[in-house]
Amino acid sequence: MMREEVTIFDFNKTSNRKQWDLVNDEVMGGISMGLLQIDDDGNGVFSGHVSLENNGGFCLIKHDINRISVEKYSSFVIKLKGDGKNYAFRCKSGEHQRHTYSYSFKTTKDWQTIQIPFKEMEAVFRGDNLELPNYHGDFLAQIAFIIKNGVAEDFTLKIDSIKIV
């Protein structure tokens, strides 16, 4: 029996980009610049420039959701189009949780649908892997995308939808 998929966020022409928070490395003195826009096709476009100056090196967008139970599901399914660069998808299971669960993926320059098993998302805090169990998929309170490849680079990631199955 197929489990029903649930949409966590679906970008469209009426999406409010202010539902997503932008966190650039300026929180630690860096000067990277990222932004989120909605394009003419209704996709979320996370783009900008990662700089390594002043101990910088990342751009992140995050979306807080009212905490939901995801016990009946096992994976995120994300439709996106990248630029050939590496990104990570992250989530939190509680609004006050300090660490996130992260899964790195490489984009192609075409539309792709990536499936991210909950059990493959590793606990991280400020870029460091923690000796904690991987995401067990009980609750979901936040989703995020980050680019942090250790190089200065421009980036563009188009996002259509984030679902759970």
UniProtKB/TrEMBL annotation:
Start and end residues of each NADH:ubiquinone oxidoreductase intermediate-associated protein domain: 9-159
Cross-referenced Gene3D superfamilies: Galactose-binding lectin
The organism's place on the tree of life at top rank: Bacteria
Transmembrane segments: none
Pfam family, one: CIA30
Family: Belongs to the CIA30 family.
Protein name: Complex I intermediate-associated protein 30 (CIA30)
